[in-house]
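Morning!

This is the sequence you dropped in the shared folder:
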Amino acid sequence: MNGFQDPRDQDPREPELPRWIFLHALRVTIGRTPVWLVSASFVALLALAQALPWLAWFDRAIGPGYAPGELLVELHEDFRFDQRASKAALDASTQAAGGALALLAMLIGVFSAGGWLQVFLERTEGESVRKFFYGGARFFLRFARVLVVTLAVLSLLRWVLHGWPWEWLVLKTLCGLEKPDLELFESERHARAVELSQAGLHALGFALVMAWADFTRTRLAFHGTRSAVWAGLCTAWAMLRHPIRMLRPLALLFAIESAVLAAGWLAVAQLEGLFGPDSTRWSVFALLAVTLGVHLGRTIVRGARYSACVLATRDVVRPLSRPDPWKRSIGGPGGPRYPIDGDEYTVSM
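The structure's back. Tokens below.
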């Protein structure tokens, strides 16, 4: 059965919330191996589409004029000078294509969000990939509206922290500068502190907005509603009322994702240090394997975020109360229903 179980058909005794939501979310997501492989392959194919023109260009540009392995570690100045015209043309073309691929990546993220939520919210088991594609198509337009609202909120955040409000409130009012210029500070330490505070507030605001967007998508799927603005307002109020219960699992998942990125960075740094003229193709394959491993790890954590959002939403948000069309009627299961009007029984033909 497609769709979610009606709240009227659920057992009134809901399963107990796991003590560690983020660990439960990771375990459940890792168990959905076909789903995270499919989700990861979407972005990997986009990266491959961006990389293929560069691979073809390097194949033409290097040719027999350079010794084997000469350009493996870095592109020296002679090569950059000789190929400056063709490289500039390739840069221009790939930058234009990169913008389109970035937009496509955001839309794929919208589709994947619907797929993950369909998998986690539906009570039935099996056919996870089919549910993933069904949910991605089912919620795509609703979640696309959430994406537009999210971009608008992020633009507002950037304006507040880098535009007139910051200049007037922080630089002029609090810091007492005649004009919004960091060079007017008496010491470089004060200017650096203001810059770090601005960057820290921007990073914190960005993280909160992205968490709000994930919970807004979850609320839309959980209630089956369509208004992104209303769901966003209700989600913001819920986050203000229950910040620890809603944000703690996402913060812990972010810590795990950061650890995955740090481990990948260390592995890449070690592999790049081993590159030289005598390196073989296996060194390149090892670098590719580490990159794909980090990408798969981030995909799993991304799916776990939606699993954690589902658990936290079920904990703090009540299901919608929908009228039961069969409440004032009688009849056997699967057979005709006879509505009750007062104390008399009336048959609808």
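Headline: The longest strand covers residues 338-341.

More detail when I'm at my desk.
O.
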